[in-house]
Amino acid sequence: MHTVYDMTRTAHAGPHPTTIHDRSGPAVELRQVTRRYGTAGATVTALDAVTLAFPRGSFTAVMGPSGSGKSSLLHCAAGLDRPTAGTVLVDGTELTGLDETALTRFRRDRMGFVFQAFNLVPTLTVVQNVVLPFELAGRRPDRTAVVRLLDRLGLGDRLDHRPAQLSGGQQQRVAIARAVLTRPAVVFADEPTGALDTRAAREVLDLLRDTVFRTGQTIVMVTHDPVAAARADAVVFFADGRPVDTVVRPDAGTVAARLATLGGGR
Ligand SMILES: Nc1ncnc2c1ncn2[C@@H]1O[C@H](COP(=O)(O)OP(=O)(O)OP(=O)(O)O)[C@@H](O)[C@H]1O
Fold first, then answer.
1. Which residues does the annotated region (Disordered) include (predicted)?
2. What distance in angstroms lies between residue 210's CA and the mean position of ligand 1's atoms?
């Protein structure tokens, strides 16, 4: 995997039209993105004119102290929240130019999500949970492809189990299968290993990485865990609503030390 890391510059500096559809650029790009909360009297600037690019086919961890803007970044990048100012592009499409209906469709088709809490439907089986986004999109999933994917994730003998019958690591692998089945351009992961023990966490991250890279997709993962971050190609550190550093080919010790200097060690 050859990935060029140029997190703070973009290939498209300068003025641009209102809506952009350009698939030659990074998988995810933020240009001068600001997110403020509150009213005039008491405003918090969660993201402060952030310009950042996540290259296609890369796996990037986002770290930083509590309140540094990681969740705000993920939410704005994934179109779950709208920036106060600035532009977000995912797979060459400007999210900030889409209305709610188009944004929902774009999210469903081009993005996958993996959360700490797995977010599986308890009454559905493993297969039913995985194909749910397909069915919601009115598409008919290819069962052979679903079974192959679940098999690759080590769940071949769990197809008809319900989430409560699975371990935490297995549940997260179901969530990964669900996130990648639609072949999204980018998978956003929010503390995906936060509820797992060390071994399950490592397995889940390796499977996430292998599964996503098989089709050249991109992962953006927010985490507090230096060991999890060390599975990524690079770590972007946030402080006070801005990216302040990038470590390429990270190891857990370097990540923990850098985090500690930002006041985010645990
Ligand atoms: N809905 C909101 N209303 C008001 N302020 C908010 C809101 N969401 C976030 N903030 C503020 O924005 C800043 C950035 O928050 P954010 O959740 O992005 O940080 P974070 O790095 O993800 O923190 P943590 O690691 O604790 O989850 C914080 O000061 C937070 O209090």
1. 1-24
2. 31
- For the chain, how many structural domains are there in total? 1
80 within some domain:
yes
For residue 35, the ligand 1 atom closest to its alpha carbon is: 12
Mean pLDDT, range 93-115, rounded to an integer: 91
What CATH number does the domain containing 91 carry? Answer: 3.40.50.300
The Cα 80–Cα 111 span in angstroms is 11
Residue 193 C-alpha to ligand 1 middle, in angstroms? Answer: 20
Pocket-testing residue among 34, 36, 70, 225, ligand 1, by greatest number of atoms within 8 A of Cβ: 70
Residues with CB under 6 A from ligand 1: 37-38, 44, 46, 64, 66-72
- Is the Cβ–Cβ distance between 146 and 131 less than 8 Å? yes
ipTM over 0.95: yes
Residue-wise pLDDT for 219-260, tens only, equals: 999 999 999 999 999 999 999 999 999 999 999 999 999 999
Residue 16 has pLDDT above 50, yes or no: no
